[in-house]
Write a structure and sequence with these properties.
Layout lengths: L9 E4 L12 H12 L5 E4 L11 H15 L4 E5 L5 H13 L4 E5 L8 H14 L4 E5 L1 H4 L5 H10 L3 E6 L4 H10 L5 E4 L5 H5 L5 E4 L2 H16 L3 H17 L7 H9 L16 H12 L5
Length: 297
């Protein structure tokens, strides 16, 4: 059965480059987008958590989407983070993303106010009914304080044709197995954690919405392709080589480490907006050792 919507196997949750004044550097946004597309990214997620969405204004979000779309030049799909803990705001942001003609939106489980499963259904139903865009649900209990259950995902995926996928950032492989059993066959599950990509694929995930693909997009793409084409040992070997990097990129709150790593590669500057702070020199030594120590062969 063909799937409803496929944004690809490697979606990069793109950082938002900033200068020393912590203003967005749109020239670096454009060059980074082009770099990612040339190094394994099938799609770019803009204005997500990795893009420091809690600190972005709506005006900045529009400009970021426009800049990344221009840089992509139709060579990759553009997905916009369009979630909120207020249903009214989530609907407004989804409509804004649709007006900017993105390819899809990512909509997170409402955070902080900890809705029930019924509350989540009403929230995502409002978003799905407000736009025609494909919607990727985002389940990340570590940030939202509440878990969207497989039955809730299955209900939404079955009721709305434009709820097409899930980003699952939760280290519970049984949940992925259950969702694969009860969700429509054409519904896509993405790993939301780089280190869980291969384990989740073993029980039915399609790919990853990745942070590490900023640095190792082609290698992650190779790992996924090897798994899907019957080369599980090659896939496992790449996973094992990348695993130290996967873990070190979350040694501090995301996107602090990946921004430091990209600065180490002279692709952007490391600056993040408060309340996040840049890595210490000691932390950088640990991170850069893992990155520089990676060898694909």
């Amino acid at each position: 059965m063909p799937i409803r919507y496929d944004a690809g196997e490697v979606i990069t949750a793109m950082v938002t480059p900033m200068n020393a004044k912590r203003e967005i550097d749109y020239n670096k946004v454009e060059s980074l987008a082009q770099y990612l597309i040339n190094h394994g990214s099938d799609a770019l997620l803009v204005c997500g958590t990795t893009g420091e969405s809690p600190t972005l204004t709506h005006e900045e979000e529009v400009e970021l989407i426009s800049t990344v779309k221009r840089a992509a030049a139709n060579k990759a799909k553009i997905i916009a983070g369009a979630g909120s803990n207020s249903t009214e705001t989530a609907v407004m942001t989804a409509k804004l993303a649709q007006k900017e003609e993105v390819d899809a939106i990512l909509s997170v489980v409402p955070y902080y106010n900890k809705p029930s499963q019924r509350g989540m259904i009403e929230h995502f139903s409002a978003v799905a009914e407000a736009v025609d865009l494909p919607i990727i649900l985002y389940n990340i209990p570590s940030r939202t304080g509440v878990t969207m259950q497989p039955s809730t995902v299955a209900y939404l995926a079955g009721k709305y044709d434009n709820i097409v996928a899930l980003k699952q950032s939760c280290p519970d492989i049984d949940m992925v197995s259950e969702m694969r059993m009860i969700c429509p066959e054409d519904f896509i599950i993405y790993s939301g954690d780089d280190s869980l990509t291969l384990p989740m694929m073993a029980v039915g995930a399609h790919g990853v919405i990745s942070v590490a693909s900023h640095l190792f997009g082609s290698e992650i793409k190779s790992m996924i392709r090897n798994f899907k084409t019957g080369e599980p040992v090659a896939a496992r070997n790449m996973h094992t080589k990348l695993f130290p990097v996967f873990r070190k990129l979350f040694m501090a709150p995301n996107p602090v480490p990946v921004k430091a790593a990209l600065a180490h590669k002279n692709l952007i500057e490391e600056y993040v907006r408060r309340p996040l702070v840049e890595l210490s020199d000691d932390e950088k030594i640990i991170l850069f050792s893992a990155i520089d120590g990676f060898h694909a062969d």
